[in-house]
Amino acid sequence: MKIVTSLSFQGQCREAFEFYARVLGGKITASFPYSSAPPGMPVTDEKYKNWLLHCWMEVGDQALMGADMDVEWAANIAKPKNGFDVTIHTPEIAEARRWFDQLSAGGRAVMPFAETFWSPGFGSLVDKFGIPWMINTMPSANWKPSQA
Question: Is the pLDDT of residue 3 over 70?
Answer without folding.
Answer: yes
